[in-house]
Design brief:
The protein has 422 residues and is of the alpha+beta class. The protein is 57% helix and 11% strand. It has helices at 2-15, 25-60, 65-71, 74-79, 81-94, 99-134, 143-167, 171-176, 178-188, 190-205, 247-252, 259-264, 285-291, 300-311, 329-342, 378-395, 409-413; strands at 213-216, 221-228, 232-237, 242-246, 256-257, 267-275, 354-357, 365-373. The relative contact order is 0.06. Keywords: Membrane, Transmembrane, Transmembrane helix. Belongs to the MscS (TC 1.A.23) family. It is found in: Endomembrane system.
């Protein structure tokens, strides 16, 4: 089609009396000047009239995505194709009798057209990547990885087409020769290829997305993902340091992704308080009467006391504490904590909410809270957790319980030595 159009234009110029002979260098120079002048005027009209008018419409539009395309100059880069196409069309006609120069300029202009097309597509891809960031699409899909992958693909396609144009060979000829160099390429660019393949896996399986909180102790990474590319993952740690992790490391090594916590809207509190075993005892009647006035235990005592009395009806000697069932201060404490947590409006009621007793250790009896806050923001999460345990430590004496604590220097100094003289 291109050759036919050139032939038609050459015939039209010939009929109009315009002909560049091999010996007429002046006519050839004039025709070249006219070709460049036409190309320049066409570019000026395209950029100053068409592109300017479209940009004016974009500025007045209500949507924002077109402003991003304008900021990356996609239309301006496309406008460069107009003079390139004009020169690619007219210069070979003008240099019909200048074989070597005509071939060089013809092929060079064809390569220039390929470069301009790829530059415009690159600008469009960068704009799409920013649109994905603005619309938060990149939190669900690693758009930048796909953009880089497509850019890399376009680069190789552009190189193959450019080389085939310069060598006047079919692109298939060069594609068939790539297999020979595959082994050398894999040896030299091993890390790049590993990162490339890992980047595709990360993108396809959504293992890591921008904005995720990941933790990878091996690389000292503990923070939010700033960027996911084909070769590296950029993590901004909570101390504002930056960690660059190779993409293939996230595929081959273990790491923790806290995305599920954010998506579910609940962050786990899993912490225990160790009780001094010596402070655990059966509740007396006076203690039961006093604790019955606690709001969170008003429904608990009538039910559990009724069950215990029914169970103890067959007990003969109830004066012995080991005979029959009795309420303990630690059991009542667990019941109180369960009711207290269920009435806490900062905890997630649709997720696990549990107060459990763990196996006793040399540091006492652990009573563990396993709950989820309904605010996953770090500072708020820490505040909710601190408020809960502040309350727990403060109410322990109400149940006759004590928190376990290893002896300190003051404890040891308070021990009075035996002054008796033997």
């Amino acid at each position: 089609m291109d050759n036919e159009l050139r032939a038609d234009i050459a015939q039209w110029l010939l009929e109009a009396g315009v002909n560049s002979q091999p010996s007429d260098s002046v006519a050839t120079s004039i025709l070249l000047f006219v070709s460049f002048l036409v190309a320049t005027i066409a570019y000026y009209i395209t950029k100053k009239v068409f592109v300017k008018a479209v940009n004016a419409v974009i500025r007045k539009s209500a949507v924002t995505w077109d402003d991003i395309f304008m900021r990356y100059g996609v239309l301006e880069k496309l406008a460069l194709l107009v003079p390139a196409f004009i020169l690619d069309l007219f210069v070979p006609i003008v240099l019909t009798h200048q074989d070597l120069l005509g071939v060089i300029l013809d092929r060079g202009l064809s390569v220039l057209v390929v470069i301009f097309i790829i530059r415009a597509i690159y600008a469009g891809l960068d704009a799409l990547n920013e649109i994905a960031d603005v619309k938060l699409i990149s939190r669900r899909l690693p758009v930048k990885s796909f953009v880089q992958l497509f850019k890399l693909f376009l680069f190789f396609i552009g190189v193959i087409i450019s080389v085939s144009v310069l060598a006047d060979q079919s692109p298939v000829y060069f594609l068939s020769g790539l297999g020979v160099a595959t082994g050398l390429v894999m040896l030299v660019f091993r890390d790049t290829i590993l990162g490339f393949v890992a980047g595709i896996q990360l993108a396809a399986n959504r293992m890591v997305s921008k904005g995720d909180w990941i933790q990878m102790d091996k690389y000292g990474a503990d923070g939010a993902v700033d960027e996911v590319s084909l070769n590296t993952v950029k993590v901004r740690n909570w101390d504002n340091t930056i960690t660059m992790i190779p993409a293939y490391a996230l595929v081959s090594d273990a790491f923790k992704n806290w995305r599920g916590m954010s998506e579910k809207g609940g962050r786990r509190i899993k912490r225990a308080i160790n009780l001094d075993v010596n402070s655990i005892h059966f509740l007396s009647e006076q203690e039961i009467e006093r604790l019955s006035k606690v709001n969170y235990l008003k429904d608990y005592f009538p039910k559990v006391v009724s069950e215990i009395n029914h169970s103890n009806e067959q007990v003969n000697d109830f004066d012995m504490p080991v005979n029959g069932r009795r309420l303990t201060n630690v059991g009542t404490f667990r019941a109180y904590l369960d009711a207290y947590l269920r009435h806490n409006n900062k905890l997630h009621k649709d997720m696990t909410l549990m107060v459990r007793q763990l196996a006793p250790t040399t540091e006492g009896l652990p009573i563990e809270l396993y709950v989820f806050t309904n605010d996953t923001r770090w500072a708020f999460y820490e505040g909710i957790q601190a408020d809960i345990f502040d309350h727990i430590f403060a109410i322990l004496p109400e149940f006759g319980l004590k928190a376990f604590q290893n002896p300190t220097g003051n404890d040891i100094r308070s021990i009075k030595p035996d002054t008796k003289v033997h």
